[in-house]
Automatic annotation (TrEMBL):
<dbReference type="InterPro" id="IPR003170">
    <property type="entry name" value="MurB"/>
</dbReference>
<keyword id="KW-0132">Cell division</keyword>
<dbReference type="InterPro" id="IPR016167">
    <property type="entry name" value="FAD-bd_PCMH_sub1"/>
</dbReference>
<dbReference type="InterPro" id="IPR016169">
    <property type="entry name" value="FAD-bd_PCMH_sub2"/>
</dbReference>
<comment type="function">
    <text>Cell wall formation.</text>
</comment>
<keyword id="KW-0131">Cell cycle</keyword>
<dbReference type="GO" id="GO:0009252">
    <property type="term" value="P:peptidoglycan biosynthetic process"/>
</dbReference>
<keyword id="KW-0573">Peptidoglycan synthesis</keyword>
<dbReference type="InterPro" id="IPR011601">
    <property type="entry name" value="MurB_C"/>
</dbReference>
<feature type="active site" description="Proton donor">
    <location>
        <position position="241"/>
    </location>
</feature>
<feature type="active site">
    <location>
        <position position="337"/>
    </location>
</feature>
<protein>
    <recommendedName>
        <fullName>UDP-N-acetylenolpyruvoylglucosamine reductase</fullName>
        <ecNumber>1.3.1.98</ecNumber>
    </recommendedName>
</protein>
<comment type="pathway">
    <text>Cell wall biogenesis; peptidoglycan biosynthesis.</text>
</comment>
<keyword id="KW-0133">Cell shape</keyword>
<feature type="domain" description="FAD-binding PCMH-type">
    <location>
        <begin position="21"/>
        <end position="189"/>
    </location>
</feature>
<dbReference type="GO" id="GO:0071949">
    <property type="term" value="F:FAD binding"/>
</dbReference>
<dbReference type="InterPro" id="IPR016166">
    <property type="entry name" value="FAD-bd_PCMH"/>
</dbReference>
Length: 341
């Protein structure tokens, strides 16, 4: 039965661990809860915030409306064909749990996305990605419920308007739908993605060769890398990568490369070059910086951290200083990946 609470602290529900309160809060564990919610007329006109794992969210103030915690569960194979397995997961399923389910069953496609925090429902919203793979590459469709009308709609790939850490749910349809389930098209015969980051090096350290390479090995390599670089939110509040990796013109990259020979770059099919934001931030002198309880992580400059009692505004102020510094030094604008409320 749906219960609506008042004056709920959101600190336990976000990985940044920042104190902010929701005026109203409800935990949605079934689609029936959505219909019950629609019948509560006193809540109809309130602003609403949909909360998954809270791993990509920075709260800078209390939320005066209704926070909807998405807890819809379940993982199942819905069909297969000669090449693919189609796996559907509830929007509230923990993302890494889904990845481990697929790896255990040898369903290929999600292994490079191991250990990303958050829930399945947030994955297409953010078009999450890591180590050369993005959700849109394995996405089949999703089912979402309109918060106001209760209408259930199926979104195909084109409907989602995927971009780099972008989708229609962050813009034109922001806050309008709750993603109830996502279906992924996974491969029976894997295509290995080992050329991004330190995957190849880590696989070699693990004693994995081309002959012994599996999706489980790639998953384990990614987990090793992430644990070596990224802080555990249970120990230090953070939202993972705070900034997107910027894309710049080839001419600008060549010019910067002449001045900074160590500058990494990843050519894109568009003709532009993706540059690691973490490298830019580190070179601008921010790695390991701390002001009060807000800081830049000592091992990965892309991660902003809350050492205990930083406010959301403290983190946001630091982010703005980092952005200004990178722009001044390199002429490159880095933009937040994290959603700021």
């Amino acid at each position: 039965m749906l219960t609506v609470q008042r004056g709920v602290s959101l600190r336990p529900y976000t990985t940044f661990g920042i104190e902010a309160q929701a005026n109203y809060f409800a935990d949605l564990i079934s689609e029936a809860d959505l219909e019950t919610l629609r019948q509560l007329n006193e809540l109809t006109d309130l602003p609403k915030l949909i909360l998954g794992g809270g791993s990509n969210l920075l709260l800078t103030q209390n939320f005066s409306g209704l926070v909807l915690k998405l807890s819809l569960g379940g993982i199942e194979v819905v069909r297969d064909d000669e090449r693919h397995i189609y796996v559907r997961a509830g929007g509230g399923v923990v993302w890494h749990d889904l990845v481990m389910y697929c790896v255990a069953n040898n369903y290929a496609g999600l292994e490079n996305l191991s250990l990303i925090p958050g829930t399945v429902g947030a994955a297409p919203m953010q078009n999450i990605g890591a180590y050369g793979v993005e959700i849109e590459q394995v996405f089949d469709h999703l089912e979402a419920v309109h918060i106001e009308t209760g209408e259930k709609r199926r979104f195909e790939h084109a409907d989602c308007q995927f971009g780099y850490r972008e989708s229609v749910f962050k813009h034109a349809l922001k806050g309008q739908y709750i993603i109830a389930s996502v279906t992924f098209r996974l491969d029976k015969v894997p295509t290995f993605h080992t050329g991004y980051g330190a995957i190849s090096e880590t696989l070699a350290e693990m004693g994995i060769t081309d002959e012994t390479l599996t999706i489980r090995a790639i998953s384990e390599a990614v987990i090793r890398i992430r644990r070596s670089k990224l802080p555990d939110p249970a120990e230090i509040g953070n939202a993972g990568s705070f900034f997107k990796n910027p894309e710049i013109d080839q001419a600008q990259f060549d010019q910067l490369k002449a001045t900074y020979p160590a500058l990494p770059g990843y050519p894109l099919t568009s003709g532009r070059v993706k540059v690691p934001a973490g490298w830019l931030i580190e070179q601008a002198g921010w790695k390991g910086y701390r002001s009060g309880d807000a800081g830049v992580h000592a091992k990965q400059a892309l991660v902003l951290v809350n050492y205990g009692n930083a406010t959301g505004q403290d983190i946001l102020d630091l982010a703005q200083r980092v952005r200004a510094s990178v722009l001044e030094k390199f002429g490159i604008e880095i933009n937040p990946e994290v959603n700021v409320i």
